[in-house]
């Protein structure tokens, strides 16, 4: 990039292009629209809506409510919804057996949502953590998360989701080699049109806290099975950036159509690097903790919520993201439509 020399231009006044709305509109470099949003949504096995305490404004939705939400997304111009399951703790086990249940809440939600609003894309999380007693994303043996045995389970789960009509599989587990295994299984099953958006650069982050509450995740390090108290042996070290490039490159080579960086705002530098390094659609996940922080501050009257929502989502576009997975999707789409 080249900059004009400062000295010969004494009349260079950047505020000239900020003096009124019309000129600001004209020179704006990036624009956020509802079409940039993927609505992050939690579905549950019961009836109606159940508010999530740590995420004011977010409720777990029944299958029927999720179908209504898909219709709402279509009306708001939101192209896709990402669904995550809340499972009754008593029905979980150490292996997350319910993950591959074709009659489970995720498959039923996919079917109901596609029936209600076929024009809206549905993305499913491929991971075992909502279904395991210990809350880890993998199978545990001898206190360790085993990679390849986990992949076998993830493939079963993903094929069941794809058969139910899911458009995008989004593996969020961070096992090595899972994208390649998923892509091969989809080919083998004649499901070659199903897209994969990999959580390629996913960090071991404190910002997932409210999500664990939202999906009723098992307590890490607790329960009858010996298991680690964090996800640091599979999710990335927040200090690393080069490693993100390796992770993304691998997932693309293995067959990912789109990649994701997660969490969002604290990792905008990673989004930018990935966008510059690879020619694939790159998404960012504005995670539960990011949502909760904005809601908490605005709840205290400390920030203007609507402005903070649009500013944070717009920041992802400025960083170069193709779009954002966010719990704010319907609120933002309404603000943008107004
Ligand atoms: C786990 C998964 C997590 C989220 C999405 N999928 C949590 C984790 O990795 O522990 C977090 C989403 C959010 O915080 O909004 N497979």
Key features of this structure:
binds ligand PBG, 12 strands, two-stranded antiparallel sheet, 8-stranded parallel barrel, globular, alpha/beta, 11 helices, TIM Barrel, 338 residues
The count of β-strands is: 12
Query: Which residues form runs of ≥5 with pLDDT under 50?
Result: none
How large a portion of the residues is in β-strands, by DSSP E?
Answer: 15-25%
SSE topology string? HEEEHEHEEEHEHEHHEHEHHEH
**Integer average pLDDT:** 96
Q: CATH architecture, please?
A: Alpha-Beta Barrel
Please give the CATH class.
Alpha Beta
Distance between the terminal alpha carbons, to the nearest Å? 37 Å
| Global shape | globular
- Main β-sheet: number of strands, strand sense, barrel status? 8 strands, parallel, barrel
Helix content: 25-40%
Q: Count of helical segments?
A: 11
- Ligands bound, unique: ligand PBG
> How many domains make up the coordinates?
1
Radius of gyration: 21 Å
Task: Give the strand order, joined by hyphens, for the main sheet.
Answer: 1-4-5-8-9-10-11-12
SS-derived structural category = alpha/beta
- The CATH superfamily appears as Aldolase class I
CATH fold-level assignment: TIM Barrel
Write up this protein.
The chain has 338 residues and is an alpha/beta fold. It has a single domain, classed as Aldolase class I (TIM Barrel, Alpha-Beta Barrel), CATH 3.20.20.70. Helices cover 38% and strands 17% of the residues. The chain is built from 11 helices and 12 strands. The strands form 3 sheets. It has an 8-stranded parallel beta barrel with strand order 1-4-5-8-9-10-11-12, surrounded by 9 helices. A two-stranded antiparallel sheet has the order 2-3. Helix 2 packs across helix 3, helix 5 packs parallel to helix 7 and helix 10 packs across helix 11. The radius of gyration is 21 Å and the shape is globular. The two termini are 37 Å apart. The model has no long low-confidence stretch (mean pLDDT 96). The chain binds ligand PBG.
């Amino acid at each position: 990039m080249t900059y004009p020399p400062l000295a010969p231009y004494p009349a260079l006044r950047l505020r000239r292009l900020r003096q009124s709305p019309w000129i600001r509109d004209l020179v704006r470099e990036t624009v956020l629209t509802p079409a940039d949003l993927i609505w992050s949504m939690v579905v549950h096995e019961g009836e109606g809506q159940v508010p999530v305490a740590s995420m004011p404004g977010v409720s777990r939705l029944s299958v029927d409510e999720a179908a209504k939400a898909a219709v709402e997304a279509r009306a708001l111009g939101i192209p896709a919804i990402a669904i995550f399951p809340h499972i009754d703790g008593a029905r979980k086990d150490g292996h997350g057996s319910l993950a591959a249940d074709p009659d489970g809440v995720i498959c039923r939600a996919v079917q109901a949502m596609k029936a209600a609003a076929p024009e809206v894309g549905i993305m499913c999380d491929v991971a075992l953590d909502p279904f395991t007693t210990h809350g880890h994303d993998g199978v545990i043996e001898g206190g360790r998360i085993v990679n390849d045995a986990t992949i076998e389970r993830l493939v079963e789960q993903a094929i069941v989701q794809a058969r139910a009509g899911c458009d995008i599989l989004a593996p969020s587990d961070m096992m090595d080699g899972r994208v390649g295994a998923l892509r091969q299984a989809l080919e083998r099953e004649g499901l070659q049109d199903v897209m994969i958006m990999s959580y390629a650069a996913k960090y071991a982050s404190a910002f997932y806290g409210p999500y664990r509450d939202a999906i009723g995740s098992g307590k890490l390090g607790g329960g009858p099975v010996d298991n680690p108290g964090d996800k640091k042996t599979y999710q990335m070290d927040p200090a690393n950036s080069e490693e993100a490039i390796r992770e993304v490159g691998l997932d693309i080579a293995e067959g990912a159509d789109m990649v994701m960086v997660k969490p969002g705002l604290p990792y905008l530098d990673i989004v930018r690097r990935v966008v510059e390094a690879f020619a694939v659609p790159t998404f960012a996940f504005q995670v539960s903790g990011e949502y909760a922080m904005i809601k908490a501050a605005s709840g205290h009257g400390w920030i203007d919520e609507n402005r903070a929502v649009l500013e944070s989502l717009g920041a992802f576009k400025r960083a170069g993201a193709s779009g954002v997975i966010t719990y704010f999707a319907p609120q933002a789409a309404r603000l943008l439509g107004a």
